Amino acid sequence: MNNKDYVIKAVDEEAQVRIWIADTTNLTKEAKARHKASGLSAAVLGKVLTAAVMMASDLKNPEGVLTLKVKGDGAAGMILATADNRGKVRGFVSNPNINGLRAERAAVKTGEIVGTAGILEISKDLGMKQPFSSRVELVSGEIDEDLVYYLKISEQIEAAVMLEVLLGQDMEIMTMGGIIVQSLPQGRLEVFRTIEKNLTRLREMRMNFYKNSGKEILEALTRGLNFEILSALEAKFKCNCHRKRLLGIIGGMSREDLNYSFKDKEEIEVLCNFCNTRYFFTREQIKAYRDSLH
Ligand SMILES: [Zn+2]
User: Fold this and answer.
1) Which residues make Cβ contacts (< 8 Å) with residue 59, sequence separation at least 6?
2) How far, in Å, CA of 110 to CA of 76, rounded?
3) How close is the Cα of 271 to the center of ligand 1, in Å?
4) Gap between the Cα atoms of 165 and 264, Å rounded
5) If you measure from the C-alpha of residue 241 to the centroid of ligand 1, how many angstroms do you get, rounded to a whole number?
6) Which of 15, 152, 165, 217 is such that its CA lies 20 to 30 A from the CA of 182?
7) pTM
8) Region for residue 55 given its phi and psi (left: phi exceeds 0; alpha: psi -120 to 50; beta: otherwise)
């Protein structure tokens, strides 16, 4: 299916239990292509991108940025994603070349790739002086379980999280999606528990983002309960790097550093880690930029 990626958010009638559902299949495919990543590397990156874009949709400030960082002792190294509240997300995994065996069409387990000794950290930069930042130790490296633990410890929120990625035989991304259910501290825990149970059943039914729409998934999750969709966003892999900003950074380098960078080279190369785009700058371009400042 070639539907657009989305993040939908729903709440119960008392606004105590909140649900996010995201289909991030296309943006995970795009991340895989941009980073020339293997299926397993893309799967773990997809989980982090998906969690970030759902969590960021709750930021109040449109200029705000949420950063989700996972760093364990497994082969993946660091996985980092940043997202805003309009469905834009970007990210990378430090090792895009993880290979290994896996069961066909089974949900990808990422614990072994991520490792279990390490941290999950979330920072929210809301455009104020100090960004908020909090971290927990990893629980399993499956990201969803780690996020449940993070929400409990750092935000005192009872949560259930599902991040599920399916790879095809050719190691291409077939489907990637996520669900987060949160109960506010004074929330109705029985409603939360019912949805938590439905979430487990959803996995068993193999209800997934490949076959089912967000609305169908929401209905299956909240059967018999009164939930309303609050917002729906289109989700996209989008980086905000651009040539001009990078030129500003390079233009600010000292003469010595520039000479060093240009040693035996006509151009210097700057790589954006988030989207793997390469930018090239010549001495003349840097000089012209510097002259333009006067
Ligand atoms: Zn970029």
Assistant:
1) 65, 66, 84, 85, 124, 126
2) 9
3) 8
4) 45
5) 4
6) 165
7) 0.92
8) alpha
- pLDDT of 215-245, one tens digit each? 999 999 998 899 999 999 999 999 999 999 8
From residue 223, give the alpha-carbon distance in Å to each of 171, 194, 196, 228: 34, 9, 12, 12
Amino acid at 73: D
State the distance from the centre of ligand 1 to the C-alpha of 39, rounded, in angstroms: 21
Nearest to 47 by CA among 167, 181, 216, 226: 167
174-220 tens-digit pLDDT:
999 999 999 987 767 888 999 999 998 887 766 677 778 899 999 99
The structural domains of the chain, ordered by start, are: 6-237 (3.55.30.10), 243-292 (3.90.1280.10)
Q: 279 alpha carbon to ligand 1 midpoint, in Å? A: 10
What's the gap in Å between 30 CA and the centre of ligand 1?
13
Taking a C-beta distance cutoff of 8 angstroms, is the pair 3, 29 a contact? no
